[in-house]
Sequence to fold (508 residues):
Amino acid sequence: VELTHPSISDNISDIERLRSALFELGIDNIHFSHLITTDLSSTIRENNWKVEVSYIERHNNTHIVFLISGTECHKRYGAAVDIGTTTVVVYLVDLDTGHLVDVGSTYNSQMRYGDDVITRIVHATEGGGLEELRSAVRGDIKSIIKSLSEIHNIRVCEVVSTVIAANTTMSQLFWGLDPSSIREAPYIPTLNRYPMWTGAEARLPVSPMSPVFTFPCIGSYVGGDIVSGVLASGMHRRDEIALFMDIGTNAEIAIGNNEWIMSAACSAGPCFEGGGVTCGMRATNGAIESIVIDRKTLEPAIKVIGGGIPIGLCGSALIDAISEMFLSGIIDLKGSFHKEKTSRIREAETGLEYVVYTNEKIGRDIIITSADVENVIRAKAAIYAGVSLILREVGLGIEAIDKVYIAGGFGNYLNMERAIIIGMLPDMPTEKFDFLGNTSIIGAYLCLMSEELMKEAEELSKKMTYLELSATNSYMEEYMSAMFLPHTDISLFPTVQVKLNNALGVEN
Fold:
């Protein structure tokens, strides 16, 4: 931008001079931060009234991100961030082309203070706990952005927009807000709709005055990650009734269409993201993602992400393994091992365990223990109970659902049939299921690229209602009924009954 030189007769302020020049270029509703204004006068004079202005439009305002003299920060990048209870994912995006420059992920370092949101909320109330939790997750995001930026020679001043998608507790902890009221009746968060704060306030390695959009939350346990996921699924635009399920440490559920959407959440634990499982890991290279057990030999055949030698099991492999062990008679409907079935079942100090893969190179076998099976059964029971209750609340049966969208950190693979066998998903035709992957980060990417979609996300959040499962007496009853494979009421799973009969040689 080239500014006119001031004079005695043309004596408007520096900021109004710049505002006027930008207005002539069609740029209006300009927001100048205090930090930008501090250096404005010296910058324009040092550069003979010619400056380069970087801006980004958010919430009908034009945010001046940085003001420079040269071209060292001439590119525009953005960071889309998914803060999960177990995993943190960052997309680094070229805002001018939409190109995904790179992806980084890591376990959420808050896990050292607890696996679930409740234990972290409790820790936040202890001396210095809130800052510890904020620093932990901020450090994760900071490390990923810095690493990706260094790899691609991207300057801090060039990262000019950030979008955060996270559940309600993770959102509050990221911004350093006391989450204690979330776990106490009547379960009220500090806020559901966040102001457009800045990169400096977020303490991230991005342009200090760049806007940071935080997805709006719905209630105490349904957050911005689900608004982001529903946005990515597009179910809010369609007439058909759809069920959306984000299967992670906190399993969130939404049901509805373009007229209404109800949401709920239940605690599934981190097992489907690799946490709390003996050989669990995220769905990355080296993780076993698929397991098939031969019905005669009871020997497992595995598929590994990236090929090569496996080093652990991701969530989809756990679902596969338990469904296969159940149909093969290796475990019963309670998840207990039948030791005499195969030599792969062995006694260990912690109880019985099943050897999936013998790996001498890493010095340990890849196993599934009795405790691992129990963890998965508890997790799937929580998810199925949540689905049952939300359907009951809206007065619909399974047959009324036209589409089921499944989201979660399973990598690129999730066998819906196996998930039905263990009773995690309702028994429906598999063609009704659509696995979308990590919809939280997908929605964050979409909003990073589109002001209109950002507005759509805010409108969507206003339409979504919230069912507090902990306030209903029926949840524990549904949960206990689902603590079997696939369920205490096998009539709810007719296709599983057929498979069991076939496995036992019983005529259907």
User: Anything to note?
Assistant: The longest strand covers residues 61-68. The chain has a mean pLDDT of 92.
